[in-house]
Specification:
Helix content is 45%, strand content 12%. By secondary structure, it is of the alpha/beta class. It folds into three domains: 4-126, no CATH class; 144-339, 3-Layer(aba) Sandwich (Rossmann fold), CATH 3.40.50; 348-538, Rossmann fold. The N and C termini lie far apart (70 Å).
Amino acid sequence: MPTLKDILYNFAEDELLSLLPRSAIDFALSSSEVRDEELGVSKHTLADLIAATKSSEFIFNDELRTKLIERIPPKIFSEMFSEIAASEAHVTPAHYSAAIKWANLDAQGFAAKIGLSEDYELNTQTTDEFESIARIKPDYSLYPYQEDISVRIFSNFEDGATRQLIHLPTGSGKTRTAMNIASQHLRDNSNNLVLWLADREELCSQAFSEFKAAWKSLGCRPTSIYGFYSESDESLSGIDSGFVVAGLHKFLSIRKRDSKQLKILYKLLLENVTLVIFDEAHKAIAPKFREVVEDFIGSTSFNAHLIGLTATPGRKFSLDGLSDEDRELSSFFHENKVSMRVSGYLSPIDYLVEKQYLAKAEFKSLDYDHSKIQAYELSDSGGPSTMKALALNNERNSRIMDTIKRECAGGAFVIVFACTVEHAVNLATALSFAGIKAASIDSKNDTPQTRRAKINQYKQGNLQVLVNFNVLTAGFDAPRTSVAVIAKPMDSLVQYLQMAGRAMRGFKSGGNNQCRIYTVMDDIPQFKSINLAFEHWNEMWQEG
């Protein structure tokens, strides 16, 4: 196939001279020994010089590309454009016009015909001619309010704070915000070690997966991640940097054991941890959990900082005001709370919904006739007898089933919170019998493996309903969920908000614009609006 040089050799001498500035030719002459008496440089050498210095222009400059095609001799033209002209004898001006039109539309194809494919690739990758501005979206980005929280956390640490609590509504990205903070902490020093603490496998598993995704985008070097929860039997030895996800119950079991070796390894971990992140931090002052946390931050010989994550910066709701437990939690984090700052909105919830970070929640009550439930069955005030009686009430279950069937017919994916283990199994079985793909999850009948399998089935859309008892309150992320049915009476605002939050992932986070929360036997009707719940504990904290 003819090259650019082959075509340039057919240009007239004055045309070649017109393609380079006179000063450039003179500069070339000063260092060239190949000269022509009249031109000062041979014609072929001039063509070679033009091919070497202006090859890209013959691809991307319309005028030069047209001139080049017009100067192709018929014999070479028929070789280059055999699909247009079959032989040299049949080449006409119309063929040249057709070739010029084609080259204008397919610069890459033309570059290939004259042996300049590499020039085309290099120029399309590096030239600013086609792209002078671009907007690049990072793979593990933060929303503006999350980035603001991250900046304030580090600023507060620099100002001397050692314990802080990040307060964000359920579904607004506490984990992602914390992973950015953890990644920056690890980038700051290759010897830093982050310890992520959580009390349940789902929370630990989520953190493990999230850090892997975060560090691939945010990391600056290879690092290690260690999972020490559930069935893990990893040793604590040799961990001196990186990211550790640990189940609190695992650590509690180590503290109880008499094994001198395990305690030595635990102590080595204590000496290396530089940042502790406690997920679901409203549990941090539970006596046993607090002991673990204070192992890492309570001794003067260790210098780990503490960050807590929660959607509810309190232990429980009380109509009489703030409880002693609430004040204890606030004190534990030195009253340092870092929350969303949004102007022009009555509540951060309003902002998150308007900006589609959270789905707009419609709270609905499922009422039924309570008269068939005997008083003695409810005598334990929400205990096992109450739960069993509610779980066996036919009218109550009928209302729940009808609601779920109606939502499923509309294409919704539903999370159900049942009264008891048996209630969860019964509801899932009845739904399956009705032709709805459903499964139940609980800690009695499920192993960690079957629990993970069912959750993955739901996330992938192979199950439409997931009924659970005391499993999916927190640490469960399935953005497709658009309906939550709270069929378990609640006296805990913290748990109620966590349950409702399972369905509130917004459109920008892969969820929905709207969601519905159905509540049966809701004991805290004054909190149908979670705006009030978000503000309830604020007076105990100083905003950082």
